[in-house]
Automatic annotation (TrEMBL):
Chain intervals with Low complexity compositional bias: 115-129
Lineage of producing organism: Eukaryota, Metazoa, Ecdysozoa, Arthropoda, Hexapoda
Source organism: Sipha flava
Name of this chain's protein: PiggyBac transposable element-derived protein 2-like isoform X1
Composition-biased stretches (Polar residues): 92-107
Residue ranges, annotated region (Disordered): 92-137
Length: 657
């Protein structure tokens, strides 16, 4: 054990006081222990002086005005060890150190400026970021008691927001997708891609059009439904898909894929720069999609959880999560509703809690709770929203911050985040019966807090700011001992949590069924494809919400939604009519490639008045114009449907109006 003693005057050993461990740690934490080059002389950084408060019971010299700061060198410092050895650090007037045990060589002397208690602490405030955080006294002194938290229904009343007329006027998959992935973003991608191609090779610049980018996205979305072993198989003779290889040549697709870019590399700061952004390559995409996603009014219940974008690409931000089905990938934090619509997302980069990446008006509750603060920035205040999260994010100060904005919260919690809470520990939980629950309540600042432990197969702990264990409900569980179902009690907050917490998991299932599986050596391309999948699912979820408001039928599956959206995108602009590779001599392959399609073009493709030409075929089929029962040899080259075109009927023109 080490003691530090201060003497009021050099050589006066009678009036010295010993510091306790807490005071010693305070001095050690607030002292700049910069090692000097020679190990004995003063530090080269003498101008970096930290101000430290001297405890009241320690004597220190002061002048008449009692306002002048003094240097530690003016005080003799004696360091005592339990072994009996004593190290004396003399004042600055002495050049040599006195060490009572000559077997050990002293390393250095201490030069730090100390301020008197009456001195201003402005310098201390400026350097507070280097000091350990002070404990929240009000949080550590919480007093709990048994009781029940019941919030009146009038305080929880929520008025469902209405969607704008612009959203209600959307009809087709392309309309909903283009609301998020609009022309502004496509123009940004076009400009940055062309700039990146010049940076790679000024002699071979790549020129893109907006329609080409749309067709590229259409091929990617088609590939999420139609899976083949390799990307090039989409243009192969055996596994090729006509709607893909007729849209764009393989070489053109690979060229666009190699130069696709989203931000200027010339503006990216070096990694050693404190303002360096690890997500610089995707920052325009992230900011744009977050703004568009959050423009949709939030529903009453929201859930926040993490998501994994599976990949093994080389990246500093790649995470290893052993409990996930896909263990390697990029971690995302997402705020969703119960239907799986993502209002806001955040890609974990490790820089989120740096002061330069946080708003100055937001409090710092720690890395996990700050995620909730950032993702709920656009949630309307004073609207009685409810947000649910798991024990990684739950903390009482963060929940009190949300409560002041009239945002109620509920989540599972770790017992060490509930100071002084007398909830059962692991040994006491073993004595609880299945269905038993215990509730304790308290208040932190202005927020009521309810903590509940409920025993099912295992004990689970939850904390809430708007509900507790009552009113209880009943649920059925299977008893292994009795070999039959039994009825147990279920607290209200358990029922609320199970009902509203699965939004992110539902979103994961939607993306996991049909996702873009293109591989790339560039880490940001994997994230870009993941954001496309996220946008497609959001557009489909928004479509169902609009149809629900209009009280119309919305029975369209996600796979059909992707196929319709992809077909619309690949029809953008002029369609490629040239053959792919060498002509095939196989008659069966030619017959299969000319087989009429079973689907019909959607409104955007049918009425775009571009590249629709009648083509005479050798096979006669029924006209696809509604209410027309005629047969014809003519079909549209772009829509691939048969339409009448003669002196009696002009279905071809009417179909494309």
């Amino acid at each position: 054990m080490l003691h530090i003693c201060y003497s009021g005057q050099e050589g006066n050993d009678m009036n010295r006081n010993k510091l306790n461990d807490e005071e010693l740690l305070q001095i050690l934490f607030n002292t700049n222990w910069s090692d000097s080059e020679d190990g004995l002389d003063n530090s080269d950084h003498e101008q970096d002086l930290n101000n430290v408060q001297i405890p009241e019971h320690v004597d220190y010299p002061t002048n008449v005005n009692d306002e002048v700061s003094f240097d530690l060198l003016d005080l003799p410092v004696e360091m005592q060890f339990d072994t009996g050895e004593t190290l004396i650090l003399p004042s600055d007037s002495k050049s040599n150190l006195t060490y009572q045990n000559q077997n050990t060589t002293p390393r250095r002397s201490i030069r730090q400026a100390f301020s008197s208690p009456t001195e201003s602490t402005s310098n201390t405030t400026n350097q507070s970021h280097s000091r350990p955080k002070e404990k929240n006294i009000e949080l550590t002194n919480l007093k709990w008691k048994k009781g029940n938290l019941i919030t009146p229904s009038a305080c929880l009343k929520f008025n469902e927001p209405t969607l704008h007329n612009d959203l209600l006027s959307l009809e087709t998959p392309l309309d909903f997708f283009a609301y998020f992935f609009n022309n502004e973003l496509l123009i940004k991608i076009k400009e940055e891609t062309e700039l990146y191609s010049v940076q790679l090779n000024p002699n071979k610049p790549v020129t893109l059009s907006i329609d080409e980018i749309k067709r590229y996205l259409g091929i990617c979305i088609y590939a999420s439904v139609l899976h083949v072993p390799k990307i090039r198989d989409y243009w192969s003779v055996d596994l090729g898909f006509p709607l893909i290889y007729n849209t764009m040549s393989r070489n053109r697709f690979e060229l666009i894929k190699s130069v696709l870019h989203f931000n200027n590399n010339a503006t990216m700061l070096l990694p050693n720069n404190p303002n360096h952004d690890r997500l610089h390559k995707l920052r325009p995409i992230i900011d744009h999609l977050n703004n568009r996603f959050s423009s949709i009014p939030c529903k009453e219940t929201l859930s926040l959880d993490e998501q994994l974008c599976a990949t093994k690409a080389k990246s500093y931000m790649k995470q290893y999560l052993p409990d996930k089905p896909h263990k390697w990938g990029f971690k995302l934090f997402i705020l969703t509703d119960t239907q799986g619509y993502a209002y806001r997302f955040e890609i974990y980069s490790g820089q989120e809690n740096n002061p330069i990446f946080r708003k100055t008006t937001e409090p710092d509750f720690g890395a996990s709770s700050n995620v909730v603060i950032r993702l709920t920035r656009n949630v309307p205040v004073n609207s009685n929203h409810k947000i649910y999260f798991d024990n990684y994010y739950t903390a009482i100060p963060m929940m009190e911050y949300l409560y002041n904005k009239n945002i109620y919260s509920l989540g599972t919690v770790r017992l060490n985040r509930l100071p002084n809470c007398p909830l059962p520990d692991k040994n006491q939980e073993k004595k609880m019966k299945r269905g038993d629950s215990i509730e304790y309540i308290t208040s932190y600042k202005s927020a009521p807090i309810s903590a509940v432990t409920w025993k099912d197969n295992k004990a689970v702990k939850l904390v809430s700011t708007y509900c507790g264990e009552i009113p209880k409900s009943e649920m059925t569980r299977f008893d292994r001992i009795k070999k039959s179902n039994i009825i147990i009690d279920c607290p209200m907050l358990i029922k609320e949590y199970n009902k509203h917490m699965g939004g992110v998991d539902l979103l994961d299932s939607h993306i996991g069924r049909y996702k873009i599986r293109f591989r790339s050596h560039k880490w940001y391309m994997r994230l870009f494809y993941h954001l496309i999948d996220l946008t497609v699912v959001n557009s489909w979820t928004l479509f169902k919400r609009v149809k629900e408001i209009k009280k119309e039928n919305s029975n369209i599956e996600l796979a059909d939604w992707r196929k319709q959206l992809a077909f619309t995108l690949i029809q953008s602009g002029q369609i490629r009519t040239s053959g792919r590779g060498r002509p095939s001599s196989s008659l069966e392959v030619k017959i299969a490639s000319t087989r009429p399609q079973s689907f019909r073009p959607i409104k955007e493709v049918r009425t775009d008045k571009f590249d629709h030409w009648p083509q005479i075929t050798d096979k006669r089929e029924r006209c696809k114009m509604p209410s027309c029962k005629g047969f014809t040899y003519l079909k549209c080259t772009k829509c691939t449907v048969f339409l009448c075109l003669n002196r009696n009927k002009n279905c071809f023109t009417n179909y494309h109006m």
